[in-house]
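User: Hi! Is it possible to get a structure for several chains at once, not just one? Here's what I have:
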Amino acid sequence: MKTSHTSNSQLLNDRARRLLRALVESYVREGQPVGSRTLARTAGLDLSPASIRNVMSDLEEMGLVSSPHTSAGRVPTAQGYRLFVDSLLEVKPLDSHEVRILKERLNPELDTKSLVESASDLLSAVTQMAGMVRVPRRDHAALMQIEFLKLSGRQVLAILVMNKNEVQNRILQLDREYSHSELQQMANYLNEHLAGLDLRQAREQVLREMKAVREHMNTMMLAAIELGEQVFSDQEQDDQVVFTGQIHLMDYAELSSVDKLRSLFEAFTEKRDLLTLLDTCISAQGVQIFIGQESGHKVLDDCSVVTAPYNVGGQVVGVLGVIGPTRMAYERIIPVVDITAKLLGAALNSRN
Amino acid sequence: MKTSHTSNSQLLNDRARRLLRALVESYVREGQPVGSRTLARTAGLDLSPASIRNVMSDLEEMGLVSSPHTSAGRVPTAQGYRLFVDSLLEVKPLDSHEVRILKERLNPELDTKSLVESASDLLSAVTQMAGMVRVPRRDHAALMQIEFLKLSGRQVLAILVMNKNEVQNRILQLDREYSHSELQQMANYLNEHLAGLDLRQAREQVLREMKAVREHMNTMMLAAIELGEQVFSDQEQDDQVVFTGQIHLMDYAELSSVDKLRSLFEAFTEKRDLLTLLDTCISAQGVQIFIGQESGHKVLDDCSVVTAPYNVGGQVVGVLGVIGPTRMAYERIIPVVDITAKLLGAALNSRN
DNA sequence: CCTGGCACTCTACCCTGATGAGTGCCAAGG
DNA sequence: CCTTGGCACTCATCAGGGTAGAGTGCCAGG
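Assistant: Yes, the chains can be modeled jointly so their relative placement is included. Here is the combined structure:
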C-alpha cells in the first residue's frame, strides 16, 4: 500500500538499486573498495554520505556487498554482481564498426581448427582475459568424401573430407591385407551410401546396414561396411577445446597470488573441469554467466565465466567464452562473447 | 714452482674447487645462501669456518659466488654454476631401471606429433621443470606416397604420407579444374619420380625437372610438376615446437614474482625467442647448457636451459630440452635430457 | 697457513604510534 | 519518517625503533 511495498516486491527500492549499480561500476573501473563519499559524488542521487551508509548497511545485510574490513569501502559480493548482471545492467550492443572489425578477423577461408583458434585469440585480445572455444562437434560435419590409402601391410589410412574445408585422417589396422583396387571399391561403396550424411548419421547407417542386410551382400560390401565401422567408431577427440590468452589473467590484482595463478593454470592444462563447465553451457541458449563460485569449480572462485553457444545449420555445435576476474566489465564482455559466437557460427556455416 | 703455481694453472686449487662444489650442491638442495659454518660441516675438509671465509672471499673476488647482503651466506653466480658444470660436476649416467621407465613412456607406435608431445611431457614430469621439443624437420621425412583428392571446383587436397606413420594434408587452389583421372595420373607420375626422397629432395627434384626438361614433357607431366611445386613449396610450420609443464616453473621461489612469471610465460606463447635459442643448439652435438644470461634472452636471466639434439637416420632432426631456474640439479637434469634425446631419436628411427 | 675471537653488518621480526579513510550510531531538523 | 551533520571508533598502512640471529671481515696468536 505504500512505496515500501513496491520496494519489497522488487526486493530493492530504486535508490538502493542505483547505488548498487554505481558501486559495481566504480569498483569494476577502479578496483578499490568504494566508500560512501565516492558514491555520494558519483551516483547522481544528491544524498549525503551518511544516508548512503545506511543503504550500504542494508545491502550488506542482504549479502550484496561486503567490506574487507571495518573501515574500507564496500565491494560487491558474487550475489551483488549477480543482481547487477540480472537486472541493473544495460548491455549496449556493440556498434557496427566494432562488429566489422571482429568479423574481419574471422576469415571463413581458414580450416576449422585455425578458425576456432582465431576466435579464441580474438576473445582474449578484445577482452584482455582468457578466451576459450569448445571445438565444433564433428558429428554434425557433412561427409563429402571418403578415401583409403594403403600404407603398409595391413595399415590403411582413411581420409574423411567434410564441409569442403575439413579433413580428418585415421590410421586403421586391418585384419588382413587388401589390394589397392579392393580399397578403391570399398571407398566407392561407402561414398555412394554415406555421402552427405553427417558423421553420426554415417555411423548409424553403417551399423544399420551391417545388421540388417548382412546376408544379401557380397564379401566386398561386407568388408567395406566393416571398414566403415572402424572409421566411424567413436573416437575421443583430445583437442576438444582451445584456450588462449591465459597470460592476461596475470595482470589482475585479485588473482595475482602465485598460488591462485598456479591452480588456474593447472585447470587450463588439465582441461577437464573447464570442459565439463563448457558442456553444461552447450544446451543453454544464449549467453551464460557464472560469477565466482556459481561455476561450482573451486579454482574459479575468484573468476567469472561468460559463455555463449554457437550454431551451424541451426544446430548448436560448440560453445565459446572468456574467463576473467569476477571484477570484469560485464556490460562490455557480454556483447563481445555474444557477437563472437554468432560470427564464428556464421563463418563456419558459410562453407557448408 | 710452488703449489700456488699449480693452482694458478687450473685457476683454482683443489680446496677452493671442493668448497665451490659443496656450496653449489648445498645451494641447489636447500635454496638458501650457504654460510661458512655449513660448508665447514658438509664439505668434508676439516677446516674451520674462518678459513672457509677466506676462501669464499677469494671466490667472490673471482666472481664465482656472491652474497645477497653482508651477513647472508654465499650463492653461486652464473659463472660459478658454469665452472661447476664444466669441471666439478660428475654426471652419473641414469641407472638402467630409470632408462627403462623413460623408454616405456615413449611409444614408437604413436604418430610423430604424439611422440614429440610424450617426450616433452616426460621431460617436464621427470625434471619438474618446463619441457620443450623442437619437432623433427619434415625435410628429412621420406616421402612414401602422394595422392590428390578433388574437393570442389579448383580445390584439391594433397595428401603426403611419410615414414609409414605420418600424414600431411595440404589444400591447393588450382588454376583450372582437373578431372578425377587427371589427378590420378599426376599422382602416379609424382609417385614414380619422388617416392623415397625426403621433402627437400623432392622439392629440388621438382624444380630441376621443371626447368630442365620442360620441352620434352606432355601437358599432363607438366601439370603434375606444377602441382608438385605447389605441394612442396616451403610452408612454414606453425607448430614447430612443443612446450609442456610450464606450470612447474611457478613452484620455484626465485621465479615466483608475478612479473617474472609473466614474461616467462609470454616467451612460451610467443615461441620466437625460444625457437631461435633451440635452433642454435641444433648444430651442436650433445648436451648444451645455458646458464642465466648465457642464453642471451633477457627473460631467461634467472633460468638455465639444458638441451640436446636428437637424430634420425644419423642426422640431427630436432632438439629437445628443459627450462628451469639456474638453481637446478644439473647432475641429474643433464643425463635425463641426454637420454631422452637418444630415446626420442630411437623411437622416431624405429619406424622409418 | 690455520684458527678462535671479536666487532660489525644486515635482515627479519615485532612493537609502537601517527595518519587517514571510512564506518556506525545518534540526535537534530525538515 | 527520512535525511543529515557530528562524533567516536575501527582498521590498514606506514615509518621508526629496538632486538635477535646469522654470517661476515679482520686480527692476533698458534
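Strands of chain A lie at 65-66, 75-76, 130-134, 143-152, 155-162, 166-173, 241-244, 288-291, 303-312, 315-325. The domain at 96-137+260-350 of chain A is CATH 3.30.450.40 (Beta-Lactamase).

User: Great, thank you!
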